[in-house]
Amino acid sequence: MISLAEGEVFLRADGHCVYSSDYLEQCIDTLIKTGARNVGGAQRYMAKNRVQAGVSLATRSFLGNGGAKYMLEDYEGYADTVFLGCFWTEDLKKLGGFNTENITNQDSEFNLRLVENFGESVFISPKIKSWYYPRDTFFKLFKQYFRYGRGRFLTRLLHPKTGPIRGLIPFIFILLFSIYLALDLGLNVNLYSLEITILLLIILVIESSVLTIKKSKLFKGEIWRGEAKTPGMISNFITVFISLLLMQLGHFSGFLYQSIKNKIFNHSGW
Questions:
Q1: DSSP states of 81-120
Q2: Edge-first strand listing for the sheet containing 17-19
Q3: Which of 44, 222, 244, 249 has its CA 20 to 30 A from that of 173?
Q4: Are 38 and 121 in contact (CB under 8 A)?
Q5: How confident is the model at residue 155 (pLDDT cuts 50, 70, 90)?
Q6: 50, 36, 39, 21: which is closest to 230 by C-alpha?
Q7: 8 A C-beta contact, residue 251 and residue 153
Q8: pLDDT at residue number 236
Q9: Contact present, 132 and 45 (Cβ < 8 Å)
């Protein structure tokens, strides 16, 4: 599509999304006014069932978004990547387009190439609005984040110096924690792994509770789009807790799988 494109602007859209009526207008206006090479808005979430409700709330947490600026609805400014994107076609062609070998992280990888070649060039505007429907089952959510983990590893191989650190945090934390648990089980010395595990679960419970309560008005007013009755706080708390857990485990598993595939089996691609 990129090689055949003749227009000045190339806009990327996702089938899981709903777009504001002025989406294209705001993209092009921001592209021209800022002088950026790629622009987009925040990744806003909507839900039609209970699992989507939990995911939508979970992404409001640092544990669910890793501090990514494109997940913050009010953020305006430059970042390392952006949701979807509106590009100058010339730049896409000049830099070789998206890396199709990386199935899930092409947008982030290409944005890193933009930043490496042009400096600050990826801009987020709160005026550019779209709403994303996340995966509707926990199995699909885990599979999605497993693929995310694989994609983050491949992007790290291509951009070891400029790749955002948030793509490494879930893997490093769970890997170190797994080693810690193994040492506690294997050594005669008590390293208090049970107590630390309980503490981490308590932190996850507190974070899930805070999200459910603090975002209740936002949930009813903007996130929930289902025809059924709005899920209650207990339902949202449970699905948020599970979502946060699966996001971390899925990302870790995918990153680990791809690293083993690369380091042990010497396979550089997907």
A1: --SS-EEEHHHHHHTTS--TTSSS-HHHHHHHHHHHHHSS
A2: 17-19, 130-132, 44-45
A3: 44
A4: yes
A5: very high
A6: 50
A7: no
A8: 97
A9: yes
